[in-house]
Write a structure and sequence with these properties.
It contains 19 helices and 15 strands. By secondary structure, it is α/β, with parallel strands linked by helices. The relative contact order is 0.11. The chain binds iron/sulfur cluster (2 copies).
Length: about 500
């Protein structure tokens, strides 16, 4: 599937439909218009609306001429005599103006920005829950937060706590008009198989009783090593999506994913994955790109597609760590972004759409603004094993009172009246829900703002001390993916016009 066939179908302002005063004759570049050049081609992109105009070098020069306010007549006069007719120049200026790339007044930019800004503010309806059924893990992966020099108290969630959390979540999600989702995670959730399986059954029961009228997806995130025939039988009943953490072939996986004795966990993870596959549960793979796997992406992709036979895959890019002493070696995020795109292209040829890149491709193709990359900034509760509620699962064990500020009992006590607003009345949740790129000074003028979503606030805290800072892992990804999509679009347009002209030629013959 090509990434994009044509530019997003946002409504253009038609000249004939316009009413009111005559259009201004002096124009300037929108602050949201960005110019890209490659191999003699130019693209001007509106970062908010994703309106694009492609052309040759002359388009770039024409656009640049409007760096300061300029009348259309002056622009046409200064470019005439370069082999381009005045009519063509006027048409190009008209197109730039119709797409909002040239504007008559800065107010136009303010209006566009405001309309998107409010769209982001409205995204605060809870419809996603992380249920952390245990804080313990049987592995000691090098990069995991459980190993991250923090003091996660060993704690299993009780069935009673899980039942209360699920009931509260069902009430919170009631007002949401799309499907809801629950991820069951830990630690390793199958270390507390009793509560994990109970939670999956209970969620399915509530779904059957109509509590999730727009649908419910349940995902179990596991390292796979504790999966056995008995667990598979239970999972076959409730059919959750199961994602197994596998970082590639044995030597890459075992470099990081070790047990408490320092032994690699590849055999156990593979056995669990195969048991799920044999039972028809079609497990997906969750693969962490770390300093080992980053330099072997072809090997990782070939292993996942050909050897594992997985049909779905999500890459996680290595998280920064709390403990400076245990930091992983310098990680080149720009190189990681390039490798991610290359892997996406390879996977796409195999009919697999990797989630990490896909979540940026989709808004570009569909013309939606991707406001938030993290559910924790509007849409999610995370329930800790002891039943405390916070916005982010990675905060487990850092400071429970600060990062899991709501007691489960507070939600249960609200009964049928429980609403998302009650969660967002908490100052931490309220601050988090306001964190999205349109509300971040480092982001508002970024060309990739419409597909970025702002990455992970937790990573921003660890690397730069505040959720209001940039998560540079995702920043590199979003910018590189956007540029790649622009030129992919351009290549597809060239291909289509070549095809069209050969059809025309064939007709003529
Ligand atoms: S802050 Fe990061 S780790 Fe936490 S929920 Fe958001 S994306 Fe996930
Ligand atoms: S995080 Fe980076 S890519 Fe994303 S909107 Fe901000 S500046 Fe742009």
């Amino acid at each position: 599937m090509p990434v994009l066939q044509s530019t997003p179908a946002l409504p253009l302002r038609s000249k004939s439909a316009k009413k009111g005063p005559a259009p201004p004759t002096v124009l300037t570049r929108s602050r949201f218009a960005h110019l890209f050049r490659k191999n003699g081609r130019a693209c001007v992109l509106h970062s908010m609306t994703r309106q694009m105009l492609f052309g040759e070098e002359v388009l770039a020069a024409l656009f640049e001429a409007f760096a300061t306010p300029l009348s259309v007549a002056s622009a046409v006069a200064s470019f005439s005599g370069q082999g381009i007719s005045a009519k063509m120049l006027e048409e190009a200026i008209d197109a730039l103006k119709e797409k909002g790339l040239l504007i008559g007044s800065a107010d136009e930019d303010v209006l566009v920005c405001k309309s998107f800004f409010h769209g982001g503010l409205l995204q605060n309806q809870i419809h996603h829950m992380y249920l952390l059924t245990t804080s313990e893990c049987n592995l000691r992966c090098r990069y995991c937060f459980v190993e991250d020099n923090r003091h996660v108290q060993p704690c299993h969630m009780s069935e009673t706590t899980a039942a209360e959390a699920i009931q509260a979540f069902a009430r919170l999600a009631r007002g949401y008009d799309e499907y809801s989702s629950v991820v069951i995670y830990g630690g390793e959730p199958l270390l507390n198989a009793r509560t994990t399986l109970f939670a999956i059954r209970r969620l399915r029961q509530l779904e059957r009783e109509g509590e999730f009228p727009h649908g419910l997806t349940i995902t179990l995130l596991t390292n796979g090593t504790l999966i056995d025939e008995k667990i598979v039988e239970e999972l076959k009943e409730a059919r959750p999506l199961v994602a197994v953490s596998i970082d590639g072939p044995r030597h890459l996986h075992d470099a990081s994913r070790k047990d408490g004795r320092g032994q690699g966990s590849f055999d156990g993870a593979l056995r669990g994955f195969r048991l799920l596959q044999q039972a028809g549960l079609d497990p997906s793979v969750s693969c962490t790109i770390n300093e080992f796997t980053l330099h072997h992406m072809d090997e990782v992709v070939d292993f996942i597609v050909k050897d594992l036979g997985a049909h779905a895959l999500g890459f996680n890019v290595l998280m920064p760590r709390v403990c400076a002493a245990s930091q992983t070696p310098e990680f080149d995020h720009e190189f990681a972004a390039h490798e991610l795109i290359r892997a996406f292209e390879k996977l796409r040829r195999a009919g697999i759409y990797e989630d990490r890149v896909m979540r940026r491709v989709k808004p570009f193709v569909n013309g939606h603004f991707h406001f938030k990359d993290c559910m924790g900034v509007g849409g999610q509760i995370v329930v800790s094993p002891s039943g405390r509620i916070g916005p982010c699962q990675a905060m487990l064990g850092l400071d429970d009172e600060k990062y899991f500020p709501i007691l489960g009992q507070q939600l249960s006590n609200a009964g049928q009246a429980l609403r998302s607003e009650m969660v967002y009345a908490d100052p931490l949740f309220d601050e988090w829900r306001h964190r999205y790129p349109l509300n971040m000074s480092d982001c508002v003028d970024c060309f990739a703002i419409s597909i970025c979503g702002g990455g992970c606030p937790y990573a921003a805290i660890l690397t730069r001390g505040s959720i209001w800072q940039i998560d540079e892992r995702i920043c590199f990804q979003a910018k590189n993916i956007l540029e790649w999509m622009i030129w992919d679009t351009c290549a597809n347009m060239d291909e289509s016009s070549d095809e069209a002209s050969s059809i025309e030629k064939a007709k003529g013959d």
